[in-house]
Structures are given as structure tokens and as C-alpha cells.
Design a protein that fits this description.
Layout: H1 3-18, H2 23-33, H3 36-49, H4 74-82, H5 84-87, H6 93-103, H7 107-114, H8 124-131, E1 136-139, E2 148-154, E3 158-165, E4 170-174, E5 194-201, H9 203-218, H10 230-238, E6 247-255, H11 270-277, E7 287-289, E8 294-297, H12 302-317, E9 321-326, E10 335-343, E11 346-357, E12 366-375, E13 378-384, H13 390-398, E14 407-412, E15 414-417, E16 424-427, E17 430-434
Parallel strand pairs: 1-10, 6-7
Antiparallel strand pairs: 2-8, 2-9, 3-4, 3-5, 5-6, 9-10, 11-12, 11-14, 12-13, 14-17, 15-16
Helix pairs in contact: 1-2, 9-12
Length: 444
């Protein structure tokens, strides 16, 4: 995409933003018009509009032809041309003239941007959501790019974004949906200009995580197996207790709102971002940097086999799965195939004994099925509410007799025992298929 096209799109969005006072409309305009190819440039321009990346000199407008590469992005124009006087510590008239001459008639946009003449009505609050939205993973489909991937453990805790709030002079911890978390971790020695991405675990989960790391390094499994502590961890986070026995496990880092002359960290590769985390390795009793298990070459055919061997070790100890981090990828605020999750799932046949009506968007349709199967000295009893097609939800709400008493195959992550009764349940149950080929389960 040419520079002129990038400027035209962003100017068009800015015009719409200036012509509405509604914050909801502003967010809608951004969501509908800022597509992936210009998102990096747009975010940068928004940062400039609220006072970041200041140049220390004033850009004026000229109407001659530009003398720069048309394939540059707006961020690259800043890094290679606009910021040069700052790097050289030279704000002389001659230096500024050289900058403006290179910009040519593009100086109109950059003068209005960096002289902060756009009146967008956007403050830190509207961009906070964009910069506090974590990178999300896609499911591994068996294929890798021709790139190196760092394998890390897929943590089974609560996602947590940490950043320093200058206005209130304290660290804040938020969920992936920007809700405040009732936790506090010792981050005194961490860089306050960065945002940290990780998950909150119990000490037992961290012991398991360390054992997973040791086992992968030794290339062998162990006989120890840890049960999931997710529910316990969630309960502690939501409680109002002051002293909670929890540990923050950081696995990525990206920039807050960088000051003039600094390259934003999320423009850097995962390899470089991990290097930034290294100095903080042992700075806190309740903050941990998640270790990389190993690095594989996506272009090597043997890597897939190596990947699954690592997955076997992780799950044999009790881990949920592994993550594949593209070493050359930037941090993005959306779901991406540069971050892949690989989980080992299981399935079990169960009998449907009741149907629950749907609520909300499934009102008047099937909401969930109640399933049971004998297990050990008791039963597994679970509600399965995902995995249905829209057609199935409508059809079986009207023909419940065709589903009650039938056998279904349910996919799940793990089995856990109830703390209040002698029954078992499934973690993340999902309908895999209705077993029309069976009329009973062997453990009925």
C-alpha cells in the first residue's frame, strides 16, 4: 500500500472522528474503517494526537514534490525522516528545511498531525482498550510457517494484563476484557513504561509448570501428575482477601505509549520482546517469567513430530497444552496465526437424560443437554452447551424425544471430582457428535 493511500485513509477516518462527539460512534468508526494493513500507522497517529512522539520542532507546509520512498509507512517516515533532527540533536532551520523538503506536499498531513491541529476528541481512555487488548491465539491446524517458533507451556490460569497507572501512581491488573482484577503483585523492579501479558496461577500450578520445563529439558516424562487448580485460582482472584497466594506468570511484553525517539516495543519481534523480559527473571517473589521450553524450525519436516513429543511430556504431567510463538512476529491486538495453541483433548460417550432450554440469544432453542455416564465409583454428570449447530438447537428444541436417551460423544480437556458431592465433571465439555451408531455405553 502506497504512502499516499495510507494518508488518504487515515485522513478520511480523522474527518469522521472530528465530526462526531459520541465516544461510541468514534469507537465504531475506528472498528469499521481501520483495517489490518493500516492499523499500525493509525495507532501511531493516535498516539501523536494525544501528545506522544513529540518532535521538538514545528513542521511547516510546502507544495513541492516529495523526495521519499512511496512504499514507506507513516511509522517509517517518522523513524527515518521526521525523527532525524532528534537523533542528531539538531533542530536548526537547515535541518528542519531538509525534513520538510523530503516530505514535499505530504507535509500538509504531517504538519497538521505533529502540530496537533486535528481535533479528534480522543484521549488516553479510548486508546487504552486498543493497547490493553492482548494478542490471542488461533488453533494449530497441523501446518507451520517457514519460521522459527518458541514453544511455551499453555497456562491454565486467568489472563492478566499489567501496566503502571501514572495518574494514580500504582500498578493495575486487568483481565483480557479490561475488567479490574482484585490482585496485587510485587512489580517494583519492572519497567513502568511497558505493558505485561501473562496469566495468574496458584503456587501448585507453578510447581507443575517448573516440572514441565525440567522434564522437557531432560527429554523425558515424569511420574508426577498435577490436578487442575483453575477453579481455586479464579475464586481467589474474585475474593476480597488482601493476601492471596497467587503468582503472576509473564509470557510477553509490549509498549505503553512510547516517548519521542523510541521505537515502540510491539513493533519488535517476539525474539526481541523475550530478550526484554530476561532482566526481570528473579526480581519478585510472586512474579515469574514463563520459560521457553524449546525452539523449533517451522521449515523442518521433523518439527511437527518434535512438537507433539513436547506436547506429550507437558500433558503427561498435567499441563493443558503448548503455545507456538513465531519468533519473528510483532505483537498485535487481535487473534493471529503467529501465535498458535496446541491442546490434547479427550472424548467420552455419555447418555443424554434431559434438555435445558436456551436463554439470551438461544431463547426458544436448545440451550444445553444433561449427560451422565458411570465412572469409577460414581458418575460423570455434566451439562454440555457448546458444539451444536444452529439447526440442531432449533430442531431438538422441538423434537426432544429424538435426543433424550441417545448416546453422544463429548470432547473435554480433563476430568475433575466435585468438592460438594461424590460426582465427577468434565472441563470444557463440547458436543463432538451424536452417536446414531450406538444405543448404550459400556459403562452405563
Amino acid at each position: 500500500m502506497k504512502l499516499i493511500d495510507r494518508l488518504n485513509v487515515i485522513e478520511s477516518v480523522f474527518d469522521e472522528l472530528e465530526n462526531t462527539s459520541s465516544m461510541l460512534d468514534k469507537k465504531r468508526i475506528i472498528e469499521e474503517n481501520v483495517f489490518d494493513e493500516i492499523k499500525e500507522d493509525f495507532d501511531f497517529c493516535i498516539e501523536v494526537s494525544i501528545g506522544h512522539h513529540r518532535l521538538g520542532y514545528t513542521i511547516y507546509e510546502i507544495y513541492s514534490a516529495p523526495k521519499l520512498d512511496e512504499n514507506l509507512t507513516i511509522v517509517e517516515v517518522y523513524q527515518k525522516i521526521l525523527n532525524k533532527p532528534n537523533e542528531d540533536n539538531d533542530h536548526s532551520i537547515a535541518k528542519v528545511n531538509d525534513v520538510v523538503t523530503q516530505l514535499g506536499y505530504y507535509s500538509y498531513f504531517f504538519a497538521k498531525l505533529f502540530n496537533r491541529e486535528y481535533k479528534l476528541g480522543i484521549g488516553k481512555s479510548i486508546i487504552s482498550d486498543r493497547f490493553l487488548s492482548p494478542m490471542l491465539a488461533k488453533k494449530f491446524d497441523g501446518k507451520l510457517k517457514n519460521a522459527y517458533y518458541a514453544i511455551t507451556e499453555k497456562l491454565d490460569g486467568n489472563r492478566c494484563i499489567a501496566f503502571y497507572d501514572d495518574d494514580n501512581d500504582k500498578w493495575k491488573f486487568m483481565s483480557r476484557n479490561h475488567k479490574p482484577l482484585h490482585v496485587d503483585f510485587d512489580m517494583e523492579n519492572f519497567d513502568k513504561s511497558k505493558i505485561y501479558d501473562g496469566e495468574i496461577l496458584s503456587p501448585e500450578q507453578v510447581r507443575m509448570s517448573q516440572e514441565i520445563f525440567d522434564a522437557v529439558v531432560r527429554h523425558n516424562q515424569t511420574n508426577n501428575y498435577y490436578d487442575s487448580q483453575f477453579n481455586k485460582t479464579s475464586g481467589l482472584i474474585n475474593s476480597k482477601m488482601q493476601n492471596k497466594d497467587l503468582i503472576y506468570n509473564i509470557f510477553d511484553i509490549y509498549h505503553m505509549l512510547p516517548s519521542c525517539g523510541r521505537r515502540p516495543d510491539n513493533y519488535q519481534s517476539y525474539r526481541n520482546r523475550r530478550a526484554m523480559l530476561s532482566p526481570f527473571h528473579e526480581n519478585s517473589e510472586n512474579v515469574r517469567i514463563l520459560p521457553m521450553l524449546k525452539v523449533i524450525d517451522g521449515g523442518d519436516e521433523s518439527s511437527i513430530e518434535d512438537l507433539y513429543k513436547t506436547l506429550d511430556i507437558v500433558t503427561s504431567i498435567g499441563g493443558e497444552g503448548i503455545m507456538l510463538n513465531n519468533m519473528d512476529a510483532k505483537y498485535v491486538y487481535t487473534r493471529t496465526d503467529d501465535l498458535l495453541k496446541v491442546k490434547k483433548t479427550y472424548s467420552i460417550d455419555m447418555k443424554v437424560y434431559a434438555i435445558e432450554a436456551g436463554r439470551g440469544k438461544y431463547l426458544g432453542q436448545l440451550g444445553a443437554i444433561k449427560c451422565k455416564v458411570n465412572f469409577k465409583d460414581s458418575v460423570i454428570d455434566v451439562d454440555v452447551g457448546t458444539g451444536f449447530t444452529d439447526y440442531q438447537r432449533l430442531y431438538y428444541s422441538c423434537h426432544q424425544d429424538e435426543l433424550i436417551g441417545k448416546i453422544v460423544e463429548v470432547e473435554y480437556a480433563s476430568i475433575s471430582k466435585s468438592k460438594t458431592s461424590n460426582t465427577y465433571s468434565l472441563r470444557f465439555p463440547r458436543l463432538k457428535r451424536i452417536r446414531l451408531d450406538k444405543d448404550s455405553v459400556s459403562t452405563d
